[in-house]
Structure formats: structure tokens, C-alpha cells
Amino acid sequence: MKRSRWLGLAGLILIAPVLADDVTIADASREAFSQPMSGLSETELAAFMRGRTLFRQAWVVSPAQDIAAGLGPLYNRLSCIACHAKNGRGQPPETPADRMQSMLVRLSVPGVGPHGGPNPHPAYGDQFNEEGVPGVPGEGRVNLRWDEKVVVLADGTKVSLRQPRLVFTELAYGPLDGALTSPRIAQPVYGSGLLDAVSESTLFALVAETKPDGVKGRVNWVWNAAKGGIALGRLGWKANMPDLRQQSAGAMIGDLGITSPLFPKQNCTPAQTACQQAALGPQPELSTAQLNDLVAYQAHLAVPARRDTESPAVKAGEARFAQMGCAVCHRPTLHTDAKAADPLLAGREIHPYSDLLLHDMGTGLSDGRPDFMASGQEWRTPPLWGIGLAGKINGKVFFLHDGRARNYEEAILWHGGEARVARDRFAKLGASDRMALQAFLDSL
Q: Which of 88, 129, 341, 378 could be joined to 394 by an S-S link, Cβ 3.0–4.6 Å?
């Protein structure tokens, strides 16, 4: 198959930036999270562009003579890109009166659900869907409020930390009594295929390593819908998805109400009779070919290359990052499986600044909601690659699973549990060292 580095296809022309290597791209523009990897064949590039269209298109209500028919009956947004703007991260509402635009709320009740996962709420399921198609009441409204506290660093600098509080109103299907809730902002999409291609043996080796400062780390074991069995989790805030295909199909049914070969049933609970009786078009609403294209698009998105790596401030910040112990979990370098199913992703050295493992982050970040083997206090180490461009591409930036952190400093100070020692080292740094650390993170 002929390989191409050009992006012109079906009348769509993009500028081809300078390529840094096969999996990263030297692009710091507002399109830095949206470029394909180098080396795609014409066939692969065509699949990438079809998937790009699917990712960006707005879905409509069935029945309709439209390839994008099938929205709902219950849903959160009309498209993938609505939550993952420019393939970047989401954000929480700015005020209690604002709607959740790129954020959602996971739901469950105590106990173990199907296949060992969270136990869905009997009336509302495992995700709060505020919207419904005509004739189907949305599940209600959720407002986000913030409780703030001030911490003081060793040099006297005061930092305000905020924590979310959810208020549910207009509940259409009864009370949410006893529900376990977890607000989540959308995660960046770029680099997903590379993370998916890291071998299980690599993750097991990371678990087995002796680590300093009380750091441990473990894998999550989750349900693989395609194989009908338990598998290692690697994607999602709590590593609750086994691969990119299930992550994509899960988001389609959970966020948009779009069925697929992997999840062919509508997202209606027994209590939601109007949802069950809603008119449907041909099933599943997302075909196997479309799901393949959607996965291909996300799998082949390049990661923006680092910038300013020779800057003295960046080098000093990188040294501080390692000295504080941050790199124990935010691993600078991993390798993808040499036998990965996608040859383009196989045998690559990547720099995600993550170990993809679960870590106990303490009570401050706990959502109190188990997710397969992950406890409420455990979260997968989020990759940091591309983080320095987040503000430029997505405007205001928010970090951690619920977007509570408004900058790097707040995000670090929320670290507890296994990261407590590293956090305390950060709190003792002087202003110049903290600025150097910020310069390093900005370079990623």
C-alpha cells in the first residue's frame, strides 16, 4: 500500500506540519491535537478521515433518512467533538447555573454490577443523561457548586483549592437516594492508540517494581465485551476500559445513546418506559465499519512533540519533576508492544508521562465509587503529553478527573495517598523552582 504524508482527501485539505517523528508531530497550533501520524497508507488515511467525520458529526433522532440517525433516546451531547473539543480535554461548568457541556456524572449504587463492574442505579443506570429525544423525559438536571479551602505553602504563598458538590434537580424517574456519583470531564483523545498498544507485560513489570515513597500501583481488571471475559484495563479515568474499541463504543452508547455491535441495546432502564417505547431506526445505529473508522481515527492521532527542551528553565523543571518523585508514576517513557495488532503502533518508544496504573490518591480525590477493582480513591495516572498546549487549544484548562484544578499548582496540591510525599516536596519549593516546574510542564 502506498504511504502518504499528505492530508488532502475528498476535498478536505489540511496543512501538513513538519513531522517530528513517526508518532509525534511538531505542531503547536490550535490543530496540534488533530493531526494524523506519519506513515498512514492511503487506505488508512481514508479510514482516518471517515472516522474524523463521524467524530465531528451531530447525530439526529430516529427515524430519519440520515446516516447520522439514532440519537438517544437518552443522551448527553449530540457529537463526540462536543465534549472533546479539538480532541482535547473537557471542563466543568463555570457557574451553578451553567449546563455540563463537556462533563458527565457516573452513577451507581453499592454492590457489584454485571461482570464485576459498578452496580447501575435501578432507575437511572450508570450515567446521568440530562437530555431526551421528543417524548422521552431527560433524567433531570445537575448543578455543580464549589467548596473552597486555602492551603499555605512553605514560603507563605496561599493557594485556594476547590472541591465539587453536585445538586440534582428535576429528577424525572424518582429519587437518587443512595446513589454513588462521580463527575468526570472528558479526557484528551490524541495518543489513545499508542496507550492501547502498550503491552500487558510492560504494565505487570511496572507493578512489580519496588518504588520509593510508599508508591505502589496496580492494574484494574475489567470486562471485555467483545471477548466476553475479564481483561486488563488501560483506558479511562479509572482504567475501566480494556481497549480503544470498547472505550469508543461505550462512549457512543453512554453519551449519545448510539447502539453498536459491541453494545446493541438502548440505554433505557426498566423505570424509563418512554425510553423503551421510543421509535428506533435500523439497529445497530453504528455499523461495524463505522466503529472501525471511529477507532482508526482516534488510534492514529499524533501526539504533539515537546517544545523548548533546551531552555534552562525547562531543564531545571524537569530535574525538579524527577527529584520530587513525580516521574515514579508519570513515567516519561514507555514502549508499545512489538506485536501490537496495528503495525503502525507496534514497537514504538513513547513519552506519555504515565504508567497507566491505578494509584491510591487519598481521601481528598476520592469519589467513593468503586469501578471494577479500582476503589473510590484509586485513579489511573493521567498522561501529561500535550498538557502544555491545553490552554492554547481549549481555552481555559482544568485538570484532574472533575476539573477542580485550575492550574498545575492546584492539581499537584490535591495529590494525596501514594503521591503525598511528592506533594509535600512540592509544597516546600520556592517560587523560582515552582516556576521552573511550570516551564517543564508547559514544554510537554
A: 88
